[in-house]
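Sorry, any thoughts here?
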Amino acid sequence: MTEGSGYQPLEENKHVKDLTEILKTNGLGADAQGLSEVVKCVSSMERELTKAINELTAMRKELSSIKEGQDHPVRNMLEKAADSLMKRFKSLLGKVQAIKNKIISGCKQAVEDIKDKGIVAANGVVSALNIRGDLEATRDSINRNIAHCEKQVAKIEAASTELHTAGMHLRNFGRAMMGREPVHDIKPNGKLASFLQMPFRNEIKAGKRALERNDKALERLGTLEKAAALVAEKNRPSAINEIKRHKEAVAQVTPDAPKPTKVKVANHEI
């Protein structure tokens, strides 16, 4: 996906904007702010992942355009790395877009509920979007992607170090043959290792930025859920008041019992 035709930032969606405005104009500024922050985090994740995919696409295209050395192992490795990362990040982007769609449909439903039932239907509207589980699943996927990339970086580092060490032994053999002292220090890995690690390091950065937005959305969502629970608890009638209200309602619909008629019998009233 690219930010071209058909792309619309979540914060610019009509249903999201309508609900935010309704909350603001009805004294629910905290809920409006919370909704806006969650929306911005999800939108930022979508942009971050889209950017990462676009970079991988450009890298893959550049590799494909190289005519010389078609079967060079470095080129083949980078192509496989780009393809693997592309698959992972497209899967992540799909999860984020599913959250985006759920927010849009949730905001649309909330606006309709408020029109039918009044502003009271707005309490807990953000938590009612039901995206906590989706955000937590996305967070786990991002962490797995980061771990995968870090593992690949470590593998390249180890392989490069091994090659460098082997090269050092060969150089020391040559130095010994010439009567020179051996070299014991291992210099940092060269440009080839850095080049191979580049796509993985870039995606680690992209993943961590997306993870930061995801965690912020979860944090803000938790605050709004607690606030909604407090409001619901405050508005919930106590058991005693509920019983009293029920008795009063019953008394209003139960007719008064007729008074007994007094009957005189032998100077006695019965």
Summary: The helical segments are 14-25, 29-64, 73-117, 132-177, 191-235, 239-253.
